[in-house]
Amino acid sequence: MNSRVARTPKGRRAGMILVQSRATDDAVELNILVLPGDGIGTEVTREAVRVLERVADRFGHRLNLRRALLGGAAIRETGSPFPPETERLAREADATLMGAVGLPEFDAAPPERRPEKGLLALRRALGVYANLRPVRAYKALLDSSPLKNRLVEGADMLIVRELTGGLYYGTPRGVCGQGADERGVNTMTYTRAEIERVARVGFALARKRRRKLVSVDKSNVLETSQLWRRVVVEVSKDFPDVALEHLLVDNCAMQLITDPRRFDVLLTENLFGDILSDEAAVLAGSIGMLPSASIGDRRPSGAWAGLYEPVHGSAPDIAGRNLANPLGAIGSAAALLEYSFGLCEEAAAVNAAVEKVLDAGQVTADLRPQGSPFGTDAVGQAVASLI
Ligand code: IPM
Ligand code: MG
């Protein structure tokens, strides 16, 4: 890929949306914060780290890992889902690799003491407003999808989800009043600047792909969506080579299932993106397959803020049983190498190893309803051994 790249003070290239491979063979310092979080987050992150260690070893890079608490694990230890120490380490790191957050024991906790609040605060603190969620129907996994092979085969899309705005963060919010008047309030709000910056990411990425962008909104009802659509149209003028189409979110939800191959880049706001990405995971055979990269603006050093996390949640029902699919986390580690460090060859080596493991049928039970002898660790080891 070609594009703008920045040289960090250390002289290496920090790639991003518009990533370019590093030109030199210099060893790179990989200062990474690992936040395993809750539930299966710990297990899948362990495998992603195993893969990163292997990459560092094979390609001669130095891996400096630090670990910190996030989510329910952090509440238990410190009372806060996003302790100041975690924030400090995340700001210092070149990139953050996260597992998952959420535990049933906090389901009834007040909003500020919920694990998910920690993740939202982390995303905000890092300013990672664009969440990239690639969804591919791997040939080896066509039968793992409940959809017909002929519908799914060849599907390959990138969901670009706005990540630091909308209903997740809007105020006023809360629950007040009593009895029949008790009222819950959330606010969907977007500024022009918030829409514009994520739209630019979407269009730039479409340019690197099949040059088609579908912007998803609910502009027949919501004012925020009307502004969203207007701003996306304006941004599109700077990308005349990318074909822009608008879809209402309900219609999009249907077409993701009836005609998934029509999608290349799908650009949407925070909540719609959350919902549509779980739906799109059906195309990949399991939500355990989906990686994500969340990116923001450059830091003063020239490097990019980056947070990497699988799309799946903490799945407490299968936690600690070596059942979780680590490939979403491993794919997120590959994205970390590519986007935060410009290590495209290394990322490609990880992705190629994942494909080989899929082709060999070495997959966890989520992809094999009839059962699988491969646990989380075996799949992680298999990927690492092929790098
Ligand atoms: C996701 C998750 C999170 C979200 C939760 C855990 C807060 O569902 O990353 O898709 O809604 O963003
Ligand atoms: Mg989600």
Detailed description of the structure:
The protein is of the alpha/beta class. It has 2 domains: 27-130 and 288-387, Isopropylmalate Dehydrogenase (3-Layer(aba) Sandwich); 146-172 and 183-284, Isopropylmalate Dehydrogenase (3-Layer(aba) Sandwich). It is 38% helix and 19% strand. The chain is built from 12 helices and 14 strands. It has a 10-stranded mixed β-sheet with strand order 4-3-5-14-13-6-7-12-10-11, sandwiched between helices. A two-stranded antiparallel sheet has the order 1-2. Strands 8-9 form a two-stranded antiparallel sheet. Helix 1 (40-59) packs across helix 10, helix 1 (40-59) runs parallel beside helix 12 (376-385) and helix 11 packs across helix 12 (376-385). The chain is globular, with a radius of gyration of 20 Å. The two termini are 22 Å apart. The model is unreliable at 1-17 (pLDDT under 50). Bound molecules: 3-isopropylmalic acid and magnesium ion. 3-isopropylmalic acid binds next to helix 4.
H and E order? EEEHEHHEHEHEEEHEHEHEHEEHHH
Principal-axes shape call: globular
Bound molecules: 3-isopropylmalic acid, magnesium ion
**Number of separate domains:** 2
Question: How many distinct helices?
Answer: 12
Strand content: 15-25%
Question: For the residues shown, what is the average pLDDT?
Answer: 93
What percent of the residues sit in helical stretches (DSSP H or I)? 25-40%
CATH superfamily of the largest domain: Isopropylmalate Dehydrogenase
Distance between the termini: 22 Å
- The secondary structure category is alpha/beta
Largest sheet: 10 strands, mixed
CATH class of the largest domain: Alpha Beta
What is the count of β-strands? 14
- Output the strand order for the largest sheet: 4-3-5-14-13-6-7-12-10-11
Q: Low-confidence stretches at least 5 residues in length (pLDDT < 50)? A: 1-17
Task: Indicate the radius of gyration in whole angstroms.
Answer: 20 Å
Predict the CATH topology of the largest domain.
Answer: Isopropylmalate Dehydrogenase
Q: Return the CATH architecture of the largest domain.
A: 3-Layer(aba) Sandwich
